[in-house]
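Data card: per-record layout.
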Amino acid sequence: MALAMQQMQDRSSAPRLLAERVREILIIDDHPLMCDALALTLKISFGLKNVRTARSLASAQEQIRSQGVPDAVILDLNLPDARGTEGLVALRRQMPEVPITMISADLEDAMISAAMAAGAQGYLSKSLGRESLVDSLRRMWEGEHVTPEGYEPGHAGEEDAARAALAQRFASLTPQQMKILRLICQGKANKEISYELSIAEATVKTHITAIMSKINARRRTQAVLLANSVRLFEPV
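The structure for this 236-residue chain is written out next.
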């Protein structure tokens, strides 16, 4: 538990960006109208010339590899290929120091808490007005953790730290291991996972052994419970 507390302290003491230094932003949202409107708002409000967009987690990750790491990211909670905190965990693995803002119409306290534990700099409602949106982003880029008005964390202290540590363990999974864990959470057997991912059943078993080791789970049911506790995969 001391390690978990230290991870929370390390996160809070991470280097802070100045909002004025955020010059390149990546918006990841599969709704074109929302994406375009947000990009235009940021260009006008912050004087940005380069606002990149992506419609899925996979395309965002490929863009980051090919075009470089942005100064900040705005991430939709639910994408075609990632729902819940999965996208956040994957991007945290790829860009550990970049502030990532979650944006969603889902304002459930448990979801917000899971996202913050997984490393989000903040969590915004899609219904925010322009001035509130801009102010919230500016505060986040200055280092503040911003959550919706009325949000009440369900856990505190050591429990919060434990959730953050668990999210870190999930972030250590490879993309293939994350796919397999998602299928496990859907109740798929090894043979079904093998068929769906076009890999040998023995390879599936090897990956599952690695997954269990990384997240400190002894059996599949425990792995599912752990994933659910940080809202890693949300039902479609």
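Known properties of this structure: The longest strand covers residues 24-28. The two ends are 34 Å apart (CA to CA).

See the next section for split statistics.
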